[in-house]
Amino acid sequence: MSIKKVSLAPDFFVVVGAGFAGSVVSRELADAGNQVLLLDKRSHIGGNAYDELDDAGVLVHRYGPHIFHTNSERVWEYLSRFTEWRPYEHRVLGVVEGKQYPFPINRDTLNRLYDLDLDEQGAAEFFERVREPREPVRSSEDVVLNSVGRDLYEKFFLNYTRKQWGVEPSELKAGVAARIPIRTNTDDRYFTDTLQAMPLHGYTKMFQCMLDHPNITVELGVDFFDLRHRKNWEQIVYTGPIDSYFDCCYGRLPYRSLSFEHEHLAHTEKYQAVGTVNFPNDHAYTRITEFKHLTGQEHGGTSIVREYPQAEGDPYYPIPNDKNEELYKRYEALGKAEKGVTFVGRLAQYRYYNMDQVVGSALTAAKRLLE
Ligand code: FAD
Ligand code: UDP
Predict the structure, then answer these.
(1) Is the Cβ atom of 176 under 6 angstroms away from ligand 2?
(2) Ligand 2 pocket: which of 180, 182, 286, 321 to mutate (most atoms <8 Å of CB)?
(3) HSE of 251 in the Cβ direction (CA atoms, 13 Å)?
(4) 362 Cβ inside 6 Å of ligand 1
(5) What's the CA gap between 370 and 167, in Å, rounded?
(6) 191 lines ligand 2 (CB under 6 A)
(7) Is the pTM here over 0.85, yes or no?
(8) CA-to-CA distance for 117 and 119, rounded, in angstroms?
(9) How confident is the prediction along the chain (371 residues), in pLDDT tens digits per residue?
C-alpha cells in the first residue's frame, strides 16, 4: 500500500518509529480494530534492538548488545505472544590493571582485587569501612562513593563514566550509576530480575511477528519530517527524539551516541569468557560483547562488537542531568499541548529506559489512546 492511498478515517493512526515503543503501540491499536501506518526512516524494523545475521552467519545486534530482563509479568506475557525464549543470564567482567574481575562488584571482586578472604559479613564491613558517606546522594559520583568509596570508584566507575557520557560522574544524575548494584554475596549476574531471557529466534523475528497484522502497514526508509507538512494526519504516535519534533525550538536536547565496531573472528569458538567485558580505564571503547554467549548460537567462528561513545551521530541515550531534564520538561509541555500526538519511548520521553520499560510505557500509552 502506498502512503498516498491511506485514508483519514477516525480509526487511522500514523506511528513514527518501528522500535519497541512504536511496534507495541501499533499492535495494540491494530488489535483494537484501528488502521495503522507505521513509518521508520531506517531500512528495518526493531529500532535499536534490531538483530541480523552478519556476513559469516552469526546473529548480531547491529546497535549494540540487547539483553532482555524484567520484573514485570505483564511485559513478559505480552512479548511472549510474539516469541519463545531462551533462558540467558548476562555476566560481565571488568578489566582493571590488566586483570578481569566480576562486575558488578561483589565479594569475589573484593577478594581477588585486594587478595582477601572475606565472607558476606566481612564484605559488608569492608564496604562500610571504605565508603564515603554522602548526604544527599544526588549525582552518580555520590552513589558510588557513598557505597564503595574512592578506590573502587576510581578503578571501575570514574573513567568508564567519563568515556561513556563525556561528562564527569558528578554531573550525571544518581540514577545512572545506581543501575549497577553492589553485592556482598558472590552473585555475578549483571541483572537480578526475575525474568531474564533472549528471544529464541532473535529480536527482529519477534518484531516481525508483532507487526504481522492485517491492520498494520509498515513503510521503511521514510522520514516522518519529509511528509508531515504535506499530510493531514490527525492521530500520530511519535517515538523519535522529542526536540526534533519541535524543530529544536528551545535548542538541542543532548543525546549520547555510539559507534559500533563489529568484527567476525573465523575459526574461533570463543573470544572471551563471558558475554561482555568492560574496559573502564583502557581503550577508546567501553566494552566488548561476544554475541554467541547471548544467543547460544553454535558456529565455528564468533562475532564481537566494540562500543565507542561519541557526541554526534544517531541518538541512543538521553543524558540524565538537571539541565537536560529542565530542557526536556519544556519540550514535554509542548508535547502535551500538541493535539492528536502521543510521545512515547526512550527518545520521545527522554528517559533512560530499558526495553521492558519501553514496552510498559507503550502499553500504557496505547491503553490511553484506546480509551
Ligand atoms: P528506538 O529503538 O530508538 O526506536 C525509535 C525508532 O524511531 C528508530 O528506529 C528510528 O529510526 C525511528 N525514528 C526516529 N525519528 C524518525 C523519523 N523522523 N521518521 C521515521 N522514523 C524515525 N535495553 C535493555 O532492556 N537491555 C539491554 O541490554 C539494552 N542494551 C542497550 C544497548 C545499547 C547500546 C543501547 C543504545 C540501548 C540498549 N537498551 C537496552 C535500551 C533499548 O535499546 C531501548 O530501551 C529500546 O530499544 C528503545 O525503544 P524505542 O522504541 O523507544 O526507541
Ligand atoms: N558503569 C561504570 N563502569 C562499568 C559499567 C557501568 O562506571 O564497568 C556506569 C556508567 O556510568 C554506565 C552506567 O554505570 O553508563 C550504567 O551501566 P549499564 O551497563 O547499565 O549501561 P548501558 O548498558 O545502558 O550502556
Answers:
(1) yes
(2) 180
(3) 8
(4) no
(5) 41
(6) no
(7) yes
(8) 7
(9) 444 444 456 799 999 999 999 999 999 999 999 999 999 999 999 999 999 999 999 999 999 999 999 999 999 999 999 999 999 999 999 999 999 999 999 999 999 999 999 999 999 999 999 999 999 999 999 999 999 999 999 999 999 999 999 999 999 999 999 999 999 999 999 999 999 999 999 999 999 999 999 999 999 999 999 999 888 899 999 999 999 999 999 999 999 999 999 999 999 999 999 999 999 999 999 999 999 999 999 999 999 999 999 999 999 999 999 999 999 999 999 999 999 999 999 999 999 999 999 999 999 999 999 99
- Between the CA of 192 and the centroid of ligand 2 the distance, in Å, is 16
Q: Is the bond leading into 136 cis (omega within 30 degrees of zero)?
A: yes
Residue 160 alpha carbon to ligand 2 centre in Å: 7
- Joined grid coordinates for residue 211: 507487526
Q: Does the C-beta of 14 come closer than 6 Å to ligand 1?
A: no
Instruction: State whether the beta carbon of 279 lies less than 6 angstroms from ligand 2.
Output: no
Cis peptide before 104 (omega within 30 of 0): yes
Domains and CATH numbers, the chain: 2-50+70-82+199-254+318-370 (3.40.50.720), 106-178 (no CATH)
